[in-house]
Design goal:
Layout lengths: L1 H42 L6 H21 L13 H24 L2 H8 L2 H11 L7 H20 L7 H32 L1 H22 L2 H4 L9 H27 L2 H22 L6 H40 L14
Helix pairs in contact: 1-10, 1-11, 2-3, 2-8, 2-10, 3-7, 3-8, 4-6, 4-11, 5-7, 6-12, 7-8, 11-12
Length: 345
């Protein structure tokens, strides 16, 4: 019986390790693939309608979730009434961030868009310091230097059709929306997602984004221009767009899967590798003009991102250890030890 127990334990451990490896590979593949395929939709399929593509991603993801509810694979739940307002704000920030970043990706090279996306920590730290008066580890401010200098080098090293002023504005607005969501709404997002579950949270988030994206697509003329799309009669082109749309929902699922089966350190390393893989694959796939300044900017940005994530990971581990130690102290019974109480030790 003991040997059988050991064998079961070994099999369980092997299954756990296999899921951890699969979740990381799946995350990297989906995250890098989502960005590259979205750019391909704009460039290769000539579907230059970023807001409509954002809305398609929401619709396709929700249609894929319905069978999960119907078969009982995922549980059905709706937002709580007392959190509807907060959920609405999260929806607006998410919709604006996604649409602005897709608009930027249509006008910028993937390498430049990803480098600018890496400036998110800069915006977050600035907002937290000015608005919330939150102080950070000194090394955090050091990490912001390459995260600022790297994208600036990428901008200087980008040429021709790889960069436009409007694209830079869109990307700045997209990162700004994402930073505001992180600073003000991160706790709300976690709370709502915990109450509803990841699948239901994703469904209602995508559904509530449609009333924002639909009028936007009408206002900027995409709804009228899409009738002139040259490949609207191609089943292959539509299949490609549906695949790109599905990747949006898969990305959220892959993140949840990695958090469940892999360590926080593994997730951090995967994020760094994903950014590097996305950028360098895009240089080859889309024939981006790779100037020395662009290469230098990419290297500085990735190094800064790695440095920043390593510091944040270390901070989180210290906070967890401190919280665990505090909980242990609070749970200890009052015992006299050589005439000293717990409080006096």
């Amino acid at each position: 019986p003991k040997q059988n127990g050991d064998n079961n334990s070994l099999v369980g451990q092997m299954a756990e390790n296999s899921m951890a490896i699969f979740s990381v590979v799946f995350l990297i593949t989906v995250a890098a693939g989502k960005t590259i395929l979205t750019k391909a939709a704009f460039k290769q399929v000539d579907f230059a309608y970023p807001v409509i593509l954002s809305g398609m991603s929401c619709i396709v993801t929700d249609l894929c979730i319905l069978p999960l509810w119907g078969t009982g694979i995922a549980s059905f739940s709706i937002p709580k009434k007392d959190k509807l307002m907060s959920f609405g704000v999260v929806t607006v920030m998410t919709a604006l961030g996604m649409a602005f970043q897709n608009l930027a990706l249509n006008l910028l090279s993937v390498a430049l868009q990803q480098a600018l996306r890496a400036t998110l920590p800069v915006f977050v730290v600035i907002f937290e310091r000015i608005v919330l008066a939150k102080k950070h580890n000194g090394w955090i401010y050091v990490a912001l230097i390459p995260l600022t200098a790297g994208p600036m080098l990428c901008v200087s090293g980008s040429t021709g059709g790889d960069i436009t002023t409007l694209g830079l504005i869109y990307m700045s607005l997209g990162v700004l929306m994402s930073a505001l969501k992180v600073v003000y709404l991160e706790k709300i997002v976690r709370s709502v997602r915990k109450d509803m579950g990841m699948v239901s949270f994703l469904f209602w988030l995508d559904l509530f984004m449609m009333p924002i994206l639909a009028p936007w697509a009408i206002a900027n003329g995409e709804v009228f221009d899409v009738t002139n799309w040259g490949q609207k009669g191609s089943a292959i082109a539509w299949g490609f767009l549906i695949m790109v749309s599905i990747m949006g929902g898969l990305r959220a699922y892959s993140i949840n899967l990695t958090v469940k089966y892999a360590s926080a350190l593994t997730k951090t390393a995967a994020d760094i590798f994903t950014q590097a893989l996305t950028i360098y694959c895009s240089l080859v796939i889309f024939h981006t003009t790779a100037t020395p300044l662009l290469h230098a900017g990419i290297a500085v940005t990735i190094a800064g991102f790695a440095f920043y994530t390593a510091i944040k990971y270390n901070e989180k581990q210290k906070a967890k250890a401190a919280a665990k130690a505090q909980k242990t102290i609070e749970e200890e019974p009052f015992l006299a030890n050589k005439g000293k109480s717990v409080e006096s030790v």
